[in-house]
Design a protein that fits this description.
This protein is about 10% helix and about 45% strand. With about 180 residues, it is mainly β. The strands form 3 sheets. Strands 1, 2, 3, 6, 7, 8, 9, 10, 11 and 12 form a 10-stranded antiparallel β-sheet that branches. About 5% of the residues have low confidence.
Length: about 180
């Protein structure tokens, strides 16, 4: 079966503050730990509005580590995940100090399941942290920082990725190999 690439652009501003008149694609990093971070990983120190919680008795505002800007995957089990997301100044500073660490391990939560992998490129780790502050939205005095990371599957560990193209259509794809 041929690999089907996934390339998702997300609205960062809608990831922070929803516009009820627009239905933009949004996404969050809910947990990021490992590769030398303190126990528990990065703090979930950003507050976002969760449109799926509306009417379900859940809090409308939830804490997250980061807000997704882009998620890309070539679709093959051994292909890395490319993730761009925005984090707080504190989390960006923590990651920037760890940026020089090669072949670091971590576990990240992407739609509903933990994935284990490595930062791609043992000679040149694919982790970049930009410490230039960017407002989450015009007129809001809250700033975030861009993190770009390339994640390769962990050797001999198979995971699955759930990818939805609508509320009723979900595909489960393998990532990694056993």
């Amino acid at each position: 079966m041929a690999a089907v690439a996934v390339d998702l652009e997300c609205s960062v501003s809608s990831g922070f503050v929803m516009d009820p008149n627009e239905h933009q694609r949004i996404g969050w990093v809910t947990k990021l730990d490992g590769f030398g971070l303190p126990v528990g990983g990065l703090q979930s120190d950003l507050q976002v509005s969760d449109p799926l919680a509306a009417g379900n008795g859940k809090p409308m505002v939830v804490p997250v580590v980061g807000v997704l800007e882009k998620f890309s995957w070539a679709g093959g089990a051994a292909d890395p995940l490319y993730v761009d997301f925005r984090v707080s100044q504190e989390n960006a500073t923590q990651l920037k100090t760890l940026q020089q660490t090669a072949k670091a391990w971590f576990t990240e939560l992407i739609p509903g399941q933990p994935l284990s992998g490595t930062i791609a490129g043992p000679e040149n780790p694919q982790l970049n942290v930009d410490l230039t502050p960017v407002p989450v939205k015009d007129g809001i005095d809250v700033y975030v920082y861009k993190v770009s990371i390339v994640i390769s599957p962990q050797p001999h560990q198979a995971c699955t990725l759930k990818l939805s193209s609508s509320s009723a259509k979900t595909a489960v794809k393998p990532w990694g190999s056993a």
